[in-house]
Automatic annotation (TrEMBL):
A biological process from GO: protoporphyrinogen IX biosynthetic process
GO molecular function: uroporphyrinogen decarboxylase activity
Subunit architecture: Homodimer.
This protein's record includes keyword Cytoplasm: yes
Pfam family, one: URO-D
PANTHER family: METHYLTETRAHYDROFOLATE:HOMOCYSTEINE METHYLTRANSFERASE RELATED (PTHR21091), UROPORPHYRINOGEN DECARBOXYLASE (PTHR21091:SF169)
Subcellular location: Cytoplasm
Protein name, entry field: Uroporphyrinogen decarboxylase
Gene: hemE
The EC number(s) this enzyme carries: 4.1.1.37
Length: 354
């Protein structure tokens, strides 16, 4: 049942696509493929249209977002598009002073460290990101039966940028708050869960037919800590968008020990990095959820024969699964030859055609 007054937006024109069928663990004509970070730096046509436009500004221009999102679909024939944006866009939209610095990533001017700092994180309203609504509408009209994946950052990963002030390898300030002031931490991730849910709501309401929650850095945590300090906030996000009826994907890097919990948080599809074979991942996640993954993105530098061999290993390991979406184990690396990606899509389609 859905709450009164809320319409199920799940049945888009892409409903019967291979990607959405795989998310629902239904039979597919071929194994669907898309790549995390498929839009962006590896494509010359991307570098061309982005020239002179800062990253955050480019996320606020619906026509540019539409063009960049469509580029990998045209070029690679992937089975899904992923909305061109960034996980920090909703934080910027609620007024956090941050920038995305080339070669670095998100940088926050005044990190969040105290209870007083929490007041800077007000709830997100759809009107704060009207450029997202506009871009998603334009995109879904252009994409037709090709699904559009909306996305957001999960509370832990967003909190890590807000607390550290930028990218980190150790998350020392993040963990200091989590262990040292669990009440402040819980309130912070709860606010972030609200912002993230609202950002996903906007994308689904405008026509996105699936969503992915990126908890990229959750692999820094042991399972007991993940369960206690992170899972409740991520579960709140998945619950909040459940009424839309669109598949919910959950992904993080180095999360082999967390795969079962990331499923339990409320995902329909669990993303797997390259460190755990797909059959072992399926065993860890248990029945009732599809899996996405998991070719090592570095394999794309090894030449086509090696790519085929390694892709075949992924397909073999995933052959017993009820729902498999082929992807890389993390994002496309900037120096990847785009032709290697196009050939990989062809290979997976041809190997799995039924
Ligand atoms: O296909 C696509 O490229 C879609 C667009 C997309 C997505 C899905 C971008 C554009 N960012 C993201 C998600 C994102 N952003 C994640 C989760 C995915 C992942 O784990 O890779 C994370 C952690 C970020 C934060 C971020 N933004 C980083 C990582 C920094 C770190 O901590 O190591 C970076 C480098 C950015 C900048 C960014 N985001 C996107 C692009 C194309 C860029 C490059 C900057 C530029 O072009 O100026």
């Amino acid at each position: 049942g859905q709450p009164a007054g809320q319409q199920q937006t799940g049945r888009t024109a892409a409903y019967d696509s291979a990607f959405l069928r795989a998310c629902r663990r239904e039979p597919v004509p071929h194994t669907p493929v898309w790549f995390m970070r498929q839009a962006g730096r590896s494509l010359p046509e991307y570098r061309k249209v982005r020239e002179g436009i800062p990253m955050l500004e480019s996320c606020m221009r619906p026509e540019l977002v539409t063009e960049i999102t469509l580029q990998p679909v045209r070029r690679h024939n992937v089975d899904a598009a992923i909305f061109f944006s960034d996980i920090v866009v909703p934080l910027k939209a609620v007024g956090i002073d941050l920038d995305i610095k080339p070669g670095v990533g998100p940088v926050v001017a005044e990190p969040i460290r105290t209870r007083a700092d929490l007041d800077r994180l007000r709830p997100l309203d759809a009107s704060d990101v009207s450029y997202v609504t506009e871009a998603v509408r334009m995109l879904t009209a252009e994409l037709g039966t090709t699904p559009l994946i909306g996305f957001a950052g999960a509370p832990f990963t967003l909190a890590s940028y807000l607390i550290e002030g930028g990218p980190s390898r150790t998350y020392e300030n993040t963990k200091a708050m989590m262990y040292g002031d669990p009440e402040l931490w819980a309130d912070l991730v709860d606010r972030l869960a609200g912002i993230t849910s609202a950002f996903l709501d906007v994308q689904i309401a405008a026509g996105a037919s699936a969503v992915q929650l990126f908890d990229s850095w959750a692999g820094a945590l042991a399972p007991a800590e993940y369960r206690k300090y992170v899972m409740p906030a991520s579960a709140k996000v998945f619950d909040a968008v459940a009424h839309h009826g669109v598949p919910r994907i959950h992904f993080g890097v180095g999360t082999g020990e967390l795969l079962n919990l990331m499923g339990e948080a409320g995902a329909d599809v669990v993303g797997v990095d390259w460190r755990v074979p797909m059959d072992e991942a399926a065993r860890r996640v248990g029945p009732g959820r599809a899996l996405q993954g998991n070719l090592d993105p570095a394999v794309l530098f090894a030449g086509h024969k090696a790519v085929e061999l390694k892709a075949r290993e992924v397909l073999d390991a995933a052959s017993g699964l009820e729902g498999h979406i082929f992807n890389l184990g993390h994002g496309v690396m900037p120096n990847t030859n785009p032709e290697a990606l196009t050939r990989l899509v062809e290979y997976v389609h041809e190997q799995t055609a039924r």
